[in-house]
Design goal:
Elements lengths: L8 E6 L7 E7 H13 L8 H8 L12 H14 L22
Antiparallel strand pairs: 1-2
Length: about 100
């Protein structure tokens, strides 16, 4: 018995920095490849995570990402901004992180 490989999927999100990211494109196989090609042409960072794509592909176009995924998407967006040399207003990338004691007491 042979199993069919799962189709390649891709999604695209839009984030304006003010509201939750929204789903702007999704597709399988040829459409997924077209989404990825368009991202490459416009130098949009590509993050590969098949499980996350499966979750987000269930959404309708224009939907905001669910609150349960805010932290995950925030980390991905921060990483993408860093790749492009962008940082949030007031953030100093040269500043050393401050170590904090979080033990109760």
């Amino acid at each position: 018995m042979t199993t069919q490989p799962e189709p390649r999927q891709a999604i695209a999100l839009k984030y304006d920095g003010k509201q939750a990211p929204t789903l702007t494109a999704k597709g399988d196989d040829a459409l997924a490849e077209a989404i990825l090609q368009l991202a490459r042409e416009h130098e949009v960072p590509i993050y590969e995570n098949a499980e996350l794509v499966k979750l987000l592909a269930r959404m309708e176009l224009g939907d905001s990402i669910p609150q349960e995924l805010y932290r995950t998407l925030a980390e991905i967006i921060a990483f993408a901004w860093q790749l492009k040399g962008k940082f949030p207003q007031g953030f100093d990338p040269d500043e050393q992180p401050v170590e904090r004691d979080i033990t109760p007491g």
